[in-house]
DNA sequence: GTAGGGTTAG
């Protein structure tokens, strides 16, 4: 058994520990009265040959297991430890508990906790943080309550863990209460507690409260800056996030991949491409290595801003690629309509020994669906199941989309009926959309009924059904949809487009009449219109949802927000510059 | 012996 243990530890670890000789003086593992099979060690005849090992030895081993997440080896150490004189040692048990918690085995951590003859505030804190770090916020909060009831005082370690849990568990909504508690204990301005607290406030959308906590910190570090930057980035507060980034630099803090990941994500989702490029340039100049976490977001930023080539360059330059890097690349190709390339890279990924996860399959399925690769898409759907990945609702959405786009609406319907899960609203929406594309009124109406039942507040499906009826000339049915929308108070989300010019974002809505440059914009658009008509442009009015004559429909089309944004951008940028227009909803066929 | 911030899809 001793030999087994020596073999189970990587030799690198052993030499690091210089323990190979000492390992042989380990006590022989004996069976314990534990009800957990995994903690049992076969008893042998060595009961009498117990040799004590000092606490530092166990401590070092457990710490190594914790750092390198060596759960199996940790269990072996545990097996030996419970035979030693340290089996009831408080600190040793806390270390053991921490090993299980950090390795993500919360069940074993809990068993250790439950069996401990003596506990202190570190014991409680260790398990609370284990739950908090492993996505079990409810358990963390529950245990915190028990800790208080048992009369233990939480410290700054406990509080930061509890606050992290509360931030993840929105139903509890105990943020302000916890903040008050921190003030009472005098920990509210502690940098760890404060960072967790301001992160919590940003997740609740209480940005002013977050700022107050940040301003009150006794000291700031990169984590507190990053927490605030990330908070604003998540809520599309890109300008504020960039401003904070400048503040961070002014105060002499070095941004990390945490800062960059947040900023790239924010720039990408709000269309601040130039600013995003500036941050990227800063990152290069500061000598920061392009690691996957920030690099993946950067790749995504370039892909979403329309440059698949830059996205690909980032992928090539990544110091080390993880599964997310591959998924981001696949998604980039899928979004750009390069289905075949996505399929090639998916195969490349598998050849390289990277195991595709559920998102990899989702990306490759999306790519096939968008490029009309029906057979390939079906092949990957089957492969996913063979690989042991259980399809989830989003995969079914993509398969319905795949079949629907290819025009096989009946097969799509059959697929929905035979799915092992209850169809979600998104699945019916995919079928509805396919019916719009292939002008199938009857099935479209059937799919829409299901959508209305499952997601009555989404205006999109009402508009699609209206369009299906309108384009088929069934105006009475179309009017009925419109009436229903009015009655149920469902409003179409107003379309808006925005464009970045000289580090500022300009936003437009359709028929924008209040813009100071509205006359110049209109003139510019007339100019563009004349030119494109000369080149053969014919207005596509098939999706105009207003019941009007052809000429009026054409006029309506001309004031869509993306056209106004384009005219504005042409007026305000030097000739030949790249113009990126972003839009909150799908671009209409004519504008496209 | 215990703590806080980040990514891909939809």
From TrEMBL:
Tagged with keyword Repeat: yes
Mapped PPR repeat ranges: 89-119, 120-154, 221-255, 322-356, 357-391, 458-492
Pfam families in the cross-refs: DYW_deaminase (PF14432), E_motif (PF20431), PPR (PF01535), PPR_2 (PF13041)
GO cellular component: mitochondrion
Swiss-Prot/TrEMBL keywords: Mitochondrion, Repeat, Transit peptide
Keyword check for Repeat: yes
Any single biological process term in GO: RNA modification
Family as reported in the entry's similarity comment: Belongs to the PPR family. PCMP-H subfamily.
Name of protein: Pentatricopeptide repeat
Native source organism of the sequence: Arabidopsis thaliana x Arabidopsis arenosa
